[in-house]
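Margin note: ligand = S-adenosylmethionine.
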Amino acid sequence: MRQKKLKYVSPELLESQGVLMNIEPLELKSVPTFLEVGSGKGLFITSLAKDNPECVYIAMEINMNICYRILEKKLALNLDNLIIILGDAENLLSYLKPQSIDGLYLNFSDPWPKKKHHKRRLTAPTFMEKYVQILKDQAFIQFRTDQIDLFDSSIEYMHQYIKMEKIDYHLEPSKYMTEYEIRKREIGPIYQLIGKVEHHAKENI
Ligand SMILES: C[S@@+](CC[C@H](N)C(=O)[O-])C[C@H]1O[C@@H](n2cnc3c(N)ncnc32)[C@H](O)[C@@H]1O
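Resulting structure:
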């Protein structure tokens, strides 16, 4: 995702506005809690947080300048139920307790087309192993992309970790779309899969 370096954005500014930057466990309330990894500029997660004040949303973004765009939206909308983490999904298990999350959104994750980079994909098995640990039993993973190669590979990666519920090769526009989705819809189809975590099924294998 492109975002110019913003001269006025610094770690201190983000931290002073409540963005979490240290790798430490989050204390969550016992309310439905949803995570988006690689939130980009945050249109999707801030819209969900605005419409569902009874739930908690967590936006995780690795790039400081992009993360600032999420913060701007959080402040403009006064979202007390949105937690922003400036951090790497690699460290997910250090932020979140086991079985603490009700649903995970992965939207337009970087495709990393070269084979030698596939392990960096946010749907790759090493990330899936982390996701299933922090997700509750029966929690969902929703993955959306415009990249067919990434989509088909992700079905392969994911099916050993989650029960596939719905695979869509022509997703209709919806109320909750990311900045990327709005742009990519003008060019071609959008793909989406939804799967469910079944901890017991895995234990029985
Ligand atoms: C292609 S952009 C899509 C952004 C947004 N989800 C959208 O659909 O508009 C991918 C985003 O994932 C973030 N990202 C990539 N790897 C990450 C990681 N390991 N942890 C957290 N964020 C990551 C990037 O910085 C970038 O903002």
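The mean pLDDT is 95.
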